[in-house]
Write a structure and sequence with these properties.
With 213 residues, the chain is mostly helical. The protein has two domains: 2-97, Conserved domain common to transcription factors TFIIS, elongin A, CRSP70 (Transcription Elongation Factor S-II, Chain A), CATH 1.20.930.10; 150-212, no CATH class. It is 66% helix and 0% strand. Helix 7 packs across helix 9. The chain is rod-shaped and about 155 Å long.
Length: 213
Amino acid sequence: MVKDQEVERIAKKLDKMVQKKNTDGAIDLLRELKNIKMSLETLQSTRIGMSVNAVRKQSSDEEVQTLAKSLIKAWKKLLDGAEGKVAAVEEKKKSASPLQCSSKDSPSSSDSKKSEPPKTPTSPSTPTTPTTPTTPKFTSFPPAPVTTDSVRTKSRELLVAALQIGDDHKTIGADCDHLAAQIEDYILLSLKSKWESYRPFQSWSISGLNVQN
């Protein structure tokens, strides 16, 4: 409290010098300020920095200007240091906020991890044994075209007889009657535009089948 009063007394004297535009004796007052250990509260309550800066600007004495600058510089460091401490405290408060806490430390996250059921390891699927392909069996055919022509009927009979030679038709399950009718009908369709040449062709086919039989 005494220090504040002393600094305030010096500040008033300096302000009067500035008003009278006479800075004689200012150097002695500045030396007194240099020997006083200044605090942030004293600087703010007495506003001594403004008084010293006003004297510095008005005085033409180099010693007064140099000492005034030195005091102002030292006080400015004190102010900057105090502001830095305040900023550090604010930053520390923000970093310690619950909203900034890591989710790893929250009990709810640990509980949720504990409540998760254990995963059952899945066994690799058993490879299937490849099956041997079987011989396809022909069990059905398109319906055989009906004919009343005696030559065509005879041709079909001979074709049936030829298809039944050996056991191949049994192995594949072929219906020789239907197959013979399909073969004969295909020959007819191939020579439809030449019907007259069909009968000689049939006679040749029949004779050939007879020879094989």
